[in-house]
Amino acid sequence: MSSTAASDGAGPGRPRTPVLGAELIAREALALIDEEGADAFSLPRLAARLGVKTASLYNHLDGRAAVIEGVRRLVVEEMDVAAFGALPWPDALRSWARSYRDAFARHPHAIELLATTTISSPATLTMYEAVVSALARGGWPRERLVSVLTCVESFLLGSALDLVAPPIMIDTAGQAERVPVLADALEGSKAARADRAFDCGLDALVRGLEDQLTALERYLTPPQ
Amino acid sequence: MSSTAASDGAGPGRPRTPVLGAELIAREALALIDEEGADAFSLPRLAARLGVKTASLYNHLDGRAAVIEGVRRLVVEEMDVAAFGALPWPDALRSWARSYRDAFARHPHAIELLATTTISSPATLTMYEAVVSALARGGWPRERLVSVLTCVESFLLGSALDLVAPPIMIDTAGQAERVPVLADALEGSKAARADRAFDCGLDALVRGLEDQLTALERYLTPPQ
Fold first, then answer.
1. Which of A45-59, A166-180, B67-81, B169-183 has the weakest average pLDDT?
2. pLDDT bucket at B4, cuts 50 / 70 / 90
3. Are residues A117 and A203 in the same domain?
4. Each residue of B70-108: pLDDT tens digit?
5. What residues of chain A lie within 8 A of the CB of B148, using their CB?
6. Same domain, A86 and A68
7. How many domains does chain A fold into?
8. Are B59 and B161 found together in one domain?
9. How far apart (Å, rounded) are the C-alpha atoms in residues B48 and B54?
10. A39-78 pLDDT, tens per residue?
11. A144 and A102 belong to one structural domain
């Protein structure tokens, strides 16, 4: 079957129906997750959508984890790392963070699945390499690179989770007198509140990281 | 059955086996989630653990959402809001954030379930009221209170998700030459890295929020 996979989308004899291969499997898996939720994701269900037997999937990839890595690659490809080569790290971090959240906003059900499975896809590692390399060029010491990457990503994943939350996430109905400050402060739609909270948090996080680096450089540079 | 529920844990005739009631149901639901994961949570499974029929649960509460709110209350009760009455808001936020993460570290599988269901339990609203009231006393304007609360909580939930991730979350095996900065920077156990990233992010976020408030106060205060 590997010859079939290798002929995907190429050659004059290309059939009108796309030939089964890792790319098509990943795209259909993402469509399944988008349309039916992460809980619905299973290889039998995916095979049924593709009109093949479950065993056929194994001719093209290594099982469930490989499909999830394919889905991760598709979502990561929607994120923009170009800024890391062009802008100072705080601006690049802001730009990447927005494209990261936008990508998950288009695929909210993929979040839970991707946040808790091992990352090994080349596309994702390449993205992380772009982030930590830009941080290193910006002056961050080696032992802080993964912390900065991870804490920003934690904020991004937590913000993305907000996108799968119900329209009324905090319901003060019937309790407003007991929690007056909270009830009074909850205004606007949940989507508008989520956007404002994301802007507030991203700005605070990047500002705070800039402060940290300044403090660190002062500490690391011996007095003249 | 409501008389049975009302007699929970009270009265001289109390049996040695705890009587079914909302509190016992919530505790058993949390134990089920802790031991078997969020996906295993269902009312039939919960009823089986309690040795009762599923229908009996409905004598004590309103269904699945009510059980989840009971679970949320138990987790929230492990978080410490006392600091909001005693310390300046940045220190109180740090202290609360640590207790929040610690609570989810003890119940990692509860995260996905609680992060994406509507919050209406009085205990949780009371916690949020303590947070936003302290922020308001600290000088934050009303229209920023929910943003600050939400962005900190997004970071906390994202960090907590890290606690359910596999021991090797970023796997550069066989790809280290292609992503040298990342491979070199990944050191220590995942748990140690998660702790460092949490410290880094919490410090940055709170520093950044302090900067934001200072900038805001400067903007809001007319020049003398």
1. A166-180
2. very low
3. yes
4. 999 999 999 999 999 999 999 999 999 999 999 998 998
5. 200
6. no
7. 2
8. no
9. 8
10. 889 999 999 999 999 999 998 888 898 999 999 999 999 9
11. yes
* Burial zone of B134 (CB within 10 Å; 0-12 exposed, 13-18 middle, 19+ buried): buried
* A68-114 confidence digits (pLDDT tens): 999 999 999 999 999 999 999 999 999 999 999 999 989 988 987 88
Chosen domain end from B33, B50, B73? B73
Q: How far is A59 from chain B (nearest CA, A)?
A: 23
Is residue B17 included in any domain, yes or no?
no
DSSP H stretches of helix in chain B: 2-6, 22-36, 43-50, 54-57, 64-76, 89-106, 110-115, 122-137, 145-161, 180-185, 190-220
Task: Tell me whether residue A118 is exposed, middle or buried, using C-beta atoms within 10 angstroms of its C-beta: 0 to 12, 13 to 18, 19 or more.
Answer: middle
DSSP per-residue codes, A32-62 = HHHHH-GGG--HHHHHHHHTS-HHHHTTTSS
Distance from CA of B96 to the nearest CA of A (A): 17
Amino acid at residue number B58: Y
Extract the tokens encoding A5: 């996979």
pTM greater than 0.90: no
A124 and A106 in a common domain: yes
Whether B161 and A194 lie within 8 Å, measured CB to CB: no
Domain range for B59 is 22-73
Of A120, A143, A164, the CB nearest to B116: A164
Contact A129 B187 (CB under 8 A): no
Cα separations in angstroms, B182 against A16, A114, A118: 42, 19, 15
Nearest-CA neighbor of B213 among A207, A37, A119, A177?
A: A207
Q: Do B65 and B140 share a domain, yes or no?
A: no
Residues B143 and B62 in one domain: no
Cα–Cα distance measured from residue A175 to residue A197, given in angstroms and rounded to the nearest whole number:
23
CATH of the domain at A41: 1.10.10.60
B203 CA to chain A: closest CA distance, Å? 7
Tell me if A138 sits within 8 A of B184, measured CB to CB.
Answer: no
Q: Which of A115-124, A179-188, B181-190, B201-210 has the highest mean pLDDT?
A: B201-210
How far is the C-alpha of A200 from the C-alpha of B159, rounded, in Å?
18
